[in-house]
Design brief:
Rossmann fold, Alpha-Beta Plaits, 4 domains
Length: about 550
């Protein structure tokens, strides 16, 4: 319900409007009233009404002066002036003060009703537009993150040449030229999954506070690493890169450390490199440190410095030096619960780092093998896995190590992969029906401009956070990524097969704004809708 504040020095008129107008019937509530502008102003500042109704001539502060001050402080407030003066100069001044309507006394109930309903409609339209703009900005940011994620995946895997890196960076409007580079990886999530919207918003707020720091400084490039983790590329002169890294780590600590009772958070720093072509090496170092969050969960900032002494040379370790607390089966179970398949090699290396020399003892090596096997089986039993879901993969690994066809690292890796395959199969089965419902919902609503994760979740009776997790795991992409790809594929078909304009196609696939449609299309296809149509026509002619 919209709030109205009324200012009128004539008591009879003020009380008449207050008592005879059915405010709630028109969608309003009378939040307050005052006899002059001076008394009204502090009340308006406190109540923040949506609509101000004020007389134009009053003692102490008149309606025009009050309107000017209120419009300056609250630009979105709607103002109705009522006056006994049919004078063009008053009307001109009212318009200059930002007044929406100018009514002459005596004000009839029918006239005020018409104005109130008109203003309510404008306020609702403005709110709808603001909501659309907010979603528009959120989608732009998420889509840019989607695009960046693909770029960084290829670059950090060493799949792009330096020339290709600069070409793709130009398409992404990224300036990557610098004297030195480094990578920071981080993950922030709640220790206990929560379903209420308020609790989900709290976590999102913590993440946003971390993101905002990196987004507002051009020396950092924030990107999504995977479903649960993020990366930041640091670029600066060699003399500044260490300070830049420290500032980023300090910010994450400052936001997250006070919430350690509720948050799990980790950040890992790579080793600086002076060439873009060396970033895969930098990523390997950062990812190695990042995997240590499972081994040493009490260390939140993971780097060569904070892990010094823990990542010793293998030949320095003897059985008597082994810290058996670091071989707790819970570490393996925790990794299987929250880790990703791509992290397995680094986790295995970190887990075995300090015991490699001790593994020369056959007895100790057998102990480690049993420890790994028991931990993996215990995890699989806990999540309800059936033996046939993981037995083949595990038995192959066991047989290979018994025949000495593989080393412990490879055995450990195969065991984890078999377990994760079973884990993902179970997750897929449990979330499969929900995911199918969500995909069906998207198929029938992708052309709706208001389509959102919350709408889809509500339609299938799930929380947005749970659907997001199921969707990301099952589809290996976010909800927005999937919807965007579906819309663009449909748009490409319409561009090839119809003569519809870009604006018409944008609306047909769910984009209210044709400019935003063009932006998304170019980001995904590398060309504008018009260029795509022209190229498709040329190819058709050649055939």
């Amino acid at each position: 319900m919209l709030k109205v504040f009324m200012v009128e020095d004539e008591t009879v008129i003020r009380e008449g409007l207050r008592d005879k107008i059915p405010w709630e019937q028109y969608g309003f509530s009378l939040a307050g009233e005052a006899s002059d502008g001076e008394m009204a102003l502090p009340m308006i500042r406190r109540l923040k009404p949506d609509v101000l109704i004020t007389d134009i001539k009053m003692p102490f502060m008149d309606g025009l002066s009050l309107s000017e001050i209120v419009k300056e402080e609250f630009p979105r407030i709607r103002i109705i002036i009522i006056s006994g003066y049919d004078d063009f100069e008053y009307a001109r001044q009212a318009i200059a003060a930002g007044v929406d309507r100018y009514l002459l006394k005596p004000v009839t109930r029918a006239a005020l009703r018409g104005v109130l309903l008109e203003i309510r409609e404008k306020i609702e339209q403005d709110a709808e537009q603001m909501d659309y703009q907010a979603r528009y900005q959120d989608e732009i940011r998420e889509f840019e993150q989607f695009s960046l994620r693909r770029f960084f995946e290829k670059m950090l895997d060493g799949k792009l040449s330096v020339k290709e890196i600069y070409e793709e960076a130009a398409r992404q409007s990224l300036e990557l030229t610098a004297g030195c580079y480094n990578l920071l990886l981080f993950s922030i999530y709640e220790k206990k999954e929560r379903d209420s919207l308020e609790e989900q918003n709290w976590l999102a707020g913590q993440q946003e506070e971390v993101f905002h720091f990196f987004l507002r400084h051009p020396q950092y490039v924030l990107f999504r690493l995977n479903v649960n983790s993020y990366g930041v590329l640091l670029k600066a002169d060699e003399s500044q890169i260490a300070e830049l890294m420290q500032r980023g780590l300090d910010h994450i600590r400052r936001v997250c450390a006070p919430q350690e009772g509720r948050l799990e958070w980790y950040a890992a720093a790579g080793e600086p490199v002076t060439r873009l072509s060396l970033l895969p090496d930098c990523y390997k170092a950062a990812n190695h440190f990042f995997a240590c969050r499972f081994i040493w969960p009490d260390i939140h900032i993971l780097s060569g410095r904070t892990l010094a002494g823990r990542l010793g040379e293998p030949d320095e370790t003897h059985i008597g030096d082994v810290d058996f607390m670091r071989m707790d089966p819970e570490i393996i179970r925790d990794f299987l619960a929250r880790g990703a398949d791509a992290e397995i090699p680094e986790f295995v290396e970190s887990y075995l780092q300090n015991i490699r020399n001790a593994l020369k003892s056959r007895m100790f090596c057998d102990y480690v093998i049993l420890n790994i096997r028991f931990a993996v089986v215990a995890f699989l039993e806990a999540i309800g896995a059936k033996r046939e879901q993981y037995l083949d993969g595990m038995e192959r690994a066991v047989a290979m190590i018994r025949r000495e066809e593989t080393d412990l690292s490879s055995y450990f890796t195969e065991m984890l992969r078999a377990a994760m395959k079973a884990r993902d199969a179970i997750s897929s089965y449990q979330g499969g029906k929900m995911l199918k419902k969500a995909l069906d919902y998207i198929d029938t609503h992708y052309d709706c401009e208001t389509l959102s994760l919350n709408m889809a979740a509500e339609s299938i009776g799930a929380s947005a956070s749970y659907l997001s997790a199921v969707f990301s795991q099952g589809m290996q992409k976010t909800f927005v990524e999937y919807v965007t790809e579906k819309r663009i594929e449909k748009a490409k078909k319409l561009l090839r097969q119809t003569d519809q304009s870009s604006g018409e196609i944008a609306r047909a696939v769910g984009y209210k704004d044709a400019h935003y449609f063009g932006f998304v299309f170019r980001k995904l296809q590398g060309c504008s809708p018009r260029e795509y149509r022209a190229e498709a026509a040329r190819r058709k002619e050649k055939r």
